[in-house]
Here is the input.
Amino acid sequence: MASQSTKLLIKGGRIVNEDQSFIADVLIENGVISDIGQDLGVSNEAQVIDATGKLVIPGGIDTHTHLQMPFMGTVSVDDFYTGTRAALAGGTTMIIDFVVPSKGESLLVAYDRWRQWADPKVCCDYSLHVCVTWWSEQVKSEMEILAKDKGVNSFKMFMAYKDTLMLEDSALYFAFEQSKRVGAIAQVHAENGSIIAEKVKELIDAGVTGPEGHLQSRPESVEAEATHRAITIAEQTNCPLYVVHVMSKSAADLVSQAQRKGLVVFGEPIAASLGTTGAHYFDKCWRHAAGHVMSPPLRDDHTTPGYLMDLLASGDLHLTGTDNCTFNANQKALGKNDFSKIPNGVNGVEDRMSVIWEKGVVTGKMDACRFVAVTSSTAAKVFNIYPQKGRVAVGSDADVVIWNPDRTRVISAKTHHQACDFNIFEGMECHGVPFYVIARGQIVRDPHGVRVVAGSGRFVPNPPYAEIAYSRIRRRDQINKPRKVEREPYKGEAITINNNDNASNNNV
Here is the structure.
């Protein structure tokens, strides 16, 4: 970041947190919010920003990115520099990326590799989730080390991608148990990978090789079934569950129903599922259709984005990410003759804030306070970094966005800051854009453009036992203890089983 004053004074804006809004000045010193009040005095060394008529909100937290991720034979084109630069351009001041070990690989080795990739490049603060792609006693012990010593409080399990990333139910159970034991959140990619594998074969054999096959191989019921199964396993282990990229109405309904039963389940729709649909898979242009391929797929029911936004606004869904995992046309072309080989992933890290404002606030479905909750504050609570992040308050990190609700912009791949050559929101007009973006007290975006320095972001440890989840988990542990009945031992006769008979029965 360019050399700037260590003091910033934001004058006259409306501060918006998740629970209240009010007009006040904000003083920032040495990367931290040091004072909030009316008519704060101006010192000579402070740079003053006039925020009259604008909103002063916590910087966005994108809970779900995959930057420079090796996947399906290639690597996502937005790395930790271009991806975080784009995030800042759109008003997101922190991302949480995923460490994805290969099957059989040490989680700690993979974690170190991701840190080595990210630390020299990130322009904003970041944290890491770690994926559990296989199960063993080694994995179990490494999960504990990651939670205690490495700042990881979330582990993601895949129920899809059979033979590469997918865990069977028994491994899911063990991973959920260990996540709970170390105070972490269990995350799931919820799709039935076994059914998908068979549907892919059927469609290829039937001559359906284009991107439309991707949607047809992963129907909504396959997402819903896996979501229900994950909720069941989470209930039986009393582990907090976080369903990533909720893409369908039926999966969202299951998350909502689980909460109504008192279960600790969080649902994460993403910018893509809130902002567009799977109708694009049937576009005559192969590149356009392939550009929307992601998993779970966008749904072709045109009412899905609005339905998911309704649940997000009402609190049935909780927070938002992007699943940002971008590939250029020549990378997507790996699947030009077989949709199952198209690298899965879309953009969103830059556009999430504007898309959610447009689809949520401009439509009257949520107010500005709820917008702050779903784009920042709830994420900070779930990953246990609140109020360091996710709030405009004295003592919080100075990750602040001055939001102009009246200005408009049109999203386009020609003007976005990402490295990818395609944008799934192409042509969408958004009312509501960042005016200034401040990360750790430094202006990184102003009306003249984006100014960032690689490596200026920091790794933010996520402590275990987030109160938003574990206050209820601890209580449920007390309520649902195993119950034993004290009774006299049975003293009657019991039959005996011949070992040879038992072996015969096992062969039936």
About this structure: The mean pLDDT is 96.
